[in-house]
From TrEMBL:
Cited Gene3D superfamilies: Glycogen Phosphorylase B
Main enzyme class: transferase
Main location group: cytoplasm
SUPFAM superfamilies: UDP-Glycosyltransferase/glycogen phosphorylase
Cofactor (UniProt): pyridoxal 5'-phosphate
Stretch forming the signal peptide: none
UniProt GO MF annotations: glycogen phosphorylase activity; pyridoxal phosphate binding
Lineage: Bacteria, Pseudomonadati, Pseudomonadota, Alphaproteobacteria, Hyphomicrobiales
Residue numbers of N6-(pyridoxal phosphate)lysine PTMs: K672
Keyword Transmembrane helix: no
Keyword set includes Transferase: yes
Top-level lineage group: Bacteria
EC number: 2.4.1.1
Name the record gives this protein: Alpha-1,4 glucan phosphorylase
Length: 820
């Protein structure tokens, strides 16, 4: 069938959005889409009906945004990320499209509370931590600042895992967020692509000078798109989050099934569907490594095939690709895209290698999120070559070009050339995906000023010398819609009353709030809102865990992925020291404090899981010791996700950002807490450095060694045992842990963890302990001066406007993508 011209295709009329019309449509969706009489509809039915009604209005804007992109010949941005931690979507979408009051009224006419049903929406299990949440904030901001964009990832059925506790130990269970479907998404059966694995590569001699390569995969699966609309603030634009699900070519082998091999008959189906089952399958085994690489190639190849198809719908060939398309690689996970784009352009579309390589380098840009060598992915050459034989050839061809270029400059030593190579030859040969992403991109950005400079000096030092203009900084940001307007509406009302509404469209206008920081009436209202948020969190902890919290205590919160460099262990050790001091000196006027933790440990990360167990063991002792008199409580809340963060962030008095200096790329939790009026205690690491500059050194509590000092101590030799022996409080706390005070059922449980501090202390827990403990007592002193405390925390809110993801995206668009 011929495609109809745009003039022959009528557009649906935009829907009205008053409460009466919304109420009528909600009943229609209940009746005809869900099949329920309103008299017997359950809360989840009302939720689905409301989402469908809102989705229709979003779709109107979505279609309009797509037509506008085609009509204006706009450059499109494609954001490739293995994670999109989008959380619940209803409140976000309804707020951004401007329907909250009308929808609330419409549902109330049926006796339905929008807040109650919104809480039933499951968190989309599409990410783990900061990487995925940043991608979600960026997608919302790209729509907000009117940049046509697609986000590409995987539609995980079970996500990372659902975290439960069994006697204080982390237990991983599958997430079931898709058990009852996802009313936000649209399946796009026409957007399906074959993805190959394994097999062989054959050469075809086109003529005497031209040779073509034909990859004949041994396995093939189908990637099918599912689209979710992403609404920008005030619905200026609606972009697309396109997630791939996997299907086998042949869902069942009937011959095997009829022969009685019922399990074997589904082998291909299970193998295909495993690609979209779990985020970050454990890679401690060869099978786990292979599945990860399969996942990364699966979504990269599907995304690139989709991008090229869309480009050819509008343009005659690929010579304009870099002018019309910008592809951002979010960390190394999609780095295989560099080789895949070259393959598609050469093997499928007939370009010569040099032209394809030139287009690829001008189309891709790469965001680095870590300085940890283990997080810069590498793959064993035998695995890569077996799974992606044609791509291995392309990687070697790219590597030859890069190494010859380095040799021609004659400014690199043999070791520096080896560091530049895409193949690590130092042990078992491995493909360096960070290096591939670097050489295949025209821009490589860090995510904070400190991180970017450290990139140039450490992990990419030699590549930076070869390409000195490629590395640039784009400090992370957060969307103020979710992380202020939605999660802290009472504070927003207070701010609007003080300074007006400009900050809702330009977050930097919050600066006007500075004038109110020392006003007693404003401080009192600010404090009342903070207490209300703390009551809400206390109620959640009581209902989930049966632990009572006093909202008048300082809520000291550390929520993030559990990792040794993030130093939850330092926080716990200091809590033990404080516990000892409270018991030893009951006559002193101690500040009541609740230390709250949340976060997941990777299933194969033994020490991280031990830290969770330690937190829970310490909590069991301290929370049940009457001599503490309720002055200190420890709580580890299981199953940290976006929805839990939306409750914890506004309730925080103190924000723990205490990573080992030089190891946190940026952080975004630090920004969320400060924006919501928490005081930060932290090291000069990641974006903490820039936060100090913006909020003022008097309004943030910085402690510990700098990144340069950490590097120097490591280079010159660190003697943690001597430091521990000189610190009475630290030595007593560590001895209590290692001797089994908190683990009477297994006195050796934490011996290895503490031995690591005594013997090498790589993460500088001992080195920074005394400075951290001193800073905490200084925080206590500020807390007791109420006026000073709220003066500082109000100024944190006032001065955090620059850390909006809208600002970050405008910088990407203007300086990297040349879009918008």
């Amino acid at each position: 069938m011929d495609r109809l011209s745009n003039e022959k295709i009528p557009s649906a009329a935009p829907r009205e959005s008053n409460a009466g019309v919304l109420a009528q449509e909600i009943i229609e969706r209940l009746t005809y889409r869900i099949g329920k009489d309103p008299k017997v509809a359950k809360p989840h039915d009302w939720l689905t009906a409301a989402i469908l009604v809102v989705r229709d209005r979003i779709t109107d804007k979505w279609m309009e945004s797509t037509r506008k992109a085609y009509a204006t010949d706009a450059k499109r941005v494609y954001y490739l990320s293995l994670e999109f931690l989008i959380g619940r979507l209803m409140r976000d979408a309804v707020t951004n499209i401007g329907l909250m009051d009308e929808l609330r009224e419409a549902l109330a006419s049926f006796g339905v509370d929008i807040d109650v049903i919104a809480a039933l929406e499951p968190d989309a299990a599409l990410g783990n931590g900061g990487l995925g949440r940043l991608a979600a904030c960026f997608m919302e901001s790209m729509a907000t600042v009117d940049i046509p964009a697609y986000g590409y990832g995987i539609r995980y059925v079970h996500g990372l895992f659902r975290q439960q506790m069994a006697d204080g130990w982390q237990v991983e269970l599958p997430e079931t967020w898709l058990a009852h479907g996802n009313p936000w998404e649209f399946e796009r059966r026409e957007s399906s692509y074959e993805i190959g694995f394994g097999g062989s590569v054959e050469t075809v001699n086109v003529d005497e000078e031209v040779t073509r390569y034909v990859w004949k995969p041994a396995e093939r699966v189908i990637a099918t798109a599912c689209d979710t609309p992403v609404v920008g603030w005030r619905a200026k634009r609606v972009n697309t989050l396109r997630l791939w699900t996997a299907h086998p070519i042949d869902p069942i082998l009937l011959d095997a099934f009829n022969a009685g091999d019922h399990i074997g008959a589904l082998r291909e189906s299970n193998k295909a569907e495993s690609l979209a089952r779990v985020l970050y399958p454990a890679d401690a085994t060869p099978a786990g490594q292979e599945l990860r690489l399969r996942q990364e190639f699966f979504f990269s190849s599907a995304s690139l095939q989709d991008i090229l198809r869309r480009h050819l719908q509008q343009y005659p060939d690929f010579t304009s690709l870099a002018d019309k398309v910008a592809i951002q690689l979010n960390d190394t996970h999609p780095a295989v895209s560099v080789a895949e784009l070259v393959r598609l352009l050469t093997d499928v579309h007939g370009m010569d290698f040099e032209a394809a390589w030139d287009i690829a380098r001008h189309t891709f840009s790469y965001t680095n999120h870590t300085l940890l060598p283990e997080a810069l992915e590498t793959w064993p050459v035998p695995l890569f070559e077996r799974l992606l034989p044609r791509h291995m050839q392309i990687v070697y061809a790219i590597n030859a070009k890069i190494l010859l270029e380095a040799r021609k400059q004659k400014s690199h030593s043999d070791q520096e050339v080896r560091n530049i190579s895409l193949i690590d030859e130092s042990g078992d040969r491995r493909v360096r995906m960070g290096n591939l992403a670097f050489v295949g991109s025209h821009s490589i950005n860090g995510v904070s000023a400190l991180h970017t400079e450290l990139m140039k000096e450490t992990v990419f030092a030699d590549l930076h010398r070869l390409y000195p203009t490629r590395i640039n900084n784009k400090t992370n940001g957060i969307t103020p819609r979710r992380w202020l307007m939605q999660c802290n509406p009472d504070l927003v009302t207070l701010i609007r009353g003080a300074i007006g509404d400009e900050f809702m469209d330009n977050t930097e206008a919050l600066q006007a709030l500075d004038a109110f920081a020392d006003k007693p009436d404003f401080q009192e209202q600010f404090a009342r809102i903070k207490r209300s948020n703390k009551v809400k969190l206390a109620q959640l902890v009581q209902s989930r865990m049966g632990i009572r919290l006093d909202p008048s205590a300082m809520f000291d919160i550390q929520i993030k992925r559990i990792h040794e460099y993030k130093r939850q262990l330092l926080n716990i050790v200091e809590a033990i020291s404080l516990y000892d001091q409270i018991r030893s000196h009951p006559e002193l006027d101690w500040v009541p404090r609740v230390k709250l933790f949340a976060g997941k440990a990777a299933p194969s990360y033994h020490n991280a899981k031990l830290i969770i167990k330690l937190a829970n063991d310490v909590a069991k002792v301290i929370n049940n010791d009457p001599s503490v008199r309720g002055l200190l409580k420890i709580v580890f809340i299981p199953n940290y996700n976006v929805s839990l963060a939306e409750i914890m962030v506004p309730a925080a008095d103190l924000s723990e950002q205490i990573s080992t200096a030089g190891m946190e790329a940026s952080g975004t939790g630090n920004m969320k807490f400060a924006l919501n009026g928490a005081l930060t205690i932290g090291t000069l690491d990641g974006a903490n450095v820039e936060m100090r500059d913006w909020v003022g050194a008097d309004n943030i509590k910085i402690f510990g060694m700098t990144a340069d000092e950490v590097s120097k101590v490591r280079a010159e030799g660190h003697n943690p045992r001597a430091i521990i022996e000189q610190s009475r409080e630290l030595s007593q706390a560590l001895f209590a842990i290692s001797s089994g005070v908190f683990s009477p059922d297994d006195r050796n449980r934490f011996t290895g963890l503490i031995d690591g501090i005594y013997n090498h202390d790589w993460f500088m827990v001992a080195a920074d302990f005394d400075a951290y403990a001193t800073a905490q007592r200084e925080v206590d002193a500020i807390w007791t001066d109420t006026a000073s405390w709220y003066s500082k925390t109000i100024r944190n809110t006032a001065r955090m406007g620059w850390f909006s993801s809208d600002r970050t995206i405008r910088q990407y668009a203007g300086e990297i993508w040349r879009a918008g």
